[in-house]
Amino acid sequence: MSDDHVQKTIATYDMTAEEFTVKVQKYTPAPERKKFMELLQPGGNILDAGCGSGRDTNYFATQGFTVTGIDLSQTLLNYALRHKKKNATFLNMDLRSMSFEDGSFDGIWACASLLHLKRGEIPPVLTKFYQFLPRGGILYLLMKQGSGERMTTRGSTNEDVRFFSYFSIDEIRLLLKEAGFTILDMFTWDQQDRHFERPHEIWISSFARKQ
Predict the structure, then answer these.
(1) Is CATH 3.40.50.300 the classification given to domain 4-209?
(2) Using CA atoms, how far apart are residues 94 and 86, in angstroms rounded to an integer?
(3) Residue 59: phi, psi to the nearest 5?
(4) Is the CB of residue 95 less than 8 Å from the CB of residue 120?
(5) Could you say which of 55, 88, 106, 198 has the lowest number of CB atoms within 10 Å?
(6) pLDDT (tens digit, 0 to 9) for every residue of the chain, 211 residues total?
(7) Model-level pTM greater than 0.70?
């Protein structure tokens, strides 16, 4: 399977790493991070799947968790490594070919990362997430609401392109159930409600457990 969509997306993140790092710090999903931590036992192991510049990996590490952050953008990982907190580890790894022992993590944080994969690539990743968690393990998934999948261009340069897959809340619910998860909570939110300067865009937050 061609991974041109992933390569182009990672190239954009490498090119815009400094701008992206500043932006994501401003747009932290703080309510979801708080809820995620409350669902975990203190001091547990977390996988930040698609950690980017390490915003959430390093934050969870400061809260007493042992955290592994993975991403394909080495430029973003270099920033994460320069700001690495105690108990944080960063690895260059493709979500589609992750390799960890079964039951390695108490929680998996997949915040706006799987949406860069083709729709057909996502179910196998969710299956791996399920395997990486023990019984009772928690998954947080953030996706964009919509339909289809496409490459998007932002700004004035054709090199600034990223691939996105879009889903309805019912489609996400089905994907999680087919992977074996029990859904704890699902809700949508408009990013403009949290940050007035951003355009209207609906996100789907999902919390699920491996029973």
Answers:
(1) no
(2) 24
(3) -65, -50
(4) no
(5) 198
(6) 468 898 889 888 888 888 888 888 888 899 999 999 999 999 999 999 999 999 999 999 999 999 999 999 999 999 999 999 999 999 999 999 999 999 999 999 999 999 999 999 999 999 999 999 999 999 999 999 999 999 887 654 445 788 999 999 999 999 999 999 999 999 998 988 788 788 788 999 999 999 9
(7) yes
